[in-house]
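Researcher: For the annotation table, I need structure tokens for NADH-quinone oxidoreductase chain 2. Please keep the output clean. Sequence:
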Amino acid sequence: MSAQSNTPHDAEPAEFAFDAESERQIAQILAKYPPERKASGVIPLLYVVQKQMGRQTGSAWVPRVAMDAVAERLEMAPIRVYEVATFYLMFNTKPIGKYHLQVCTTTSCWLRGSDDVTAACKAATGIGAFGETSADGMFTMTEVECLGACANAPILQVDDDYYEDMDGPRTTELIAALRRGERPKPGPTIDRMDSAPVGGRKTLLDTAGQGTGTQDNG
Ligand code: FES
């Protein structure tokens, strides 16, 4: 797991201002909360910052100066924004590559081959370890905990998209497609309907409503 820090990074911009798209999103977010409770918008606003940095620089991260801008907008002490931004792994507190490869290595994914996914990510990008960015600046690889999609393990999350039922060769193909500027459709990468059983349905097969599928209660 990569270390999170609110220490200003070398790439820290001198200043940060919300752009028009971010201002539009912030207005929608803050409309959900009473004015005296607008601090509740801290997580969504940090996401807004991260997206804006991605649009403007190609690297979706949250600089310290932007945390300060969020604190000012929400009338919070800056330390409270730093606490949130450095606690949650989904906020990048240092620059990352154009594509963020997030490999789930928790139990279900590990049992189903996350080691192969990790090895394929390394081989296809030249990255040596979790937390590193490829020399060409295209990819950052991060180890993440359970992504809540265990039924389709192993999962490789790219930015906000889940690629499911992955293995080594499909990981290699996906990274090659990203390099070509393509964005393959997220979801299961094998012939499978969402999280339905591999090979087709196994229960509730009696469509006439006369039985209880394959279950035998004696
Ligand atoms: S263990 Fe990987 S999604 Fe749950």
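Researcher: And a one-line annotation?
Model: The pocket of FE2/S2 (inorganic) cluster is lined by residues 104, 106-109, 146-150, 153, 155 (CB under 6 Å).
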